[in-house]
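Handover notes (outgoing to incoming on-call)

Open items:
1. Response regulator: sequence verified, structure written out, both below. Nothing else pending on this one.
2. Nothing else urgent.
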Amino acid sequence: MPTPLSGLRILVLEDEALIALDVEQLCRDHGAGEVAIAGNLREAREVAVPYDAAIIDVMLGGEPTFDFARSLEAAGVPFVFASGYDQLDEIFAGFPGVALVSKPYAGADLIEAVAESIRKAARSADS
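Response regulator structure tokens:
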């Protein structure tokens, strides 16, 4: 039976190593074929394998990830924000339709948000 992330390549942009490893395992448990972890924006830009979706922390070492998120948006790569910064409504307003999964989050909530972002992107591509 297919799982929500069956065979997909997922980028995890997270600077907390334990969280990144947990998210990597969560993605693999839900069928991801490949999971790339990047702890900073430089590493994220250097990931050689194109990815099908991304999970992005809002701040990495004090550096916002919004420009990187905009580059994903422009490339048509679905993504979700996973962050402890949930009181930034004015910033998130620049990303209508992009889910914010607040830390601490339940694994099922994160996976469902990623799966929904992928479904939305597929519907948009079909239109």
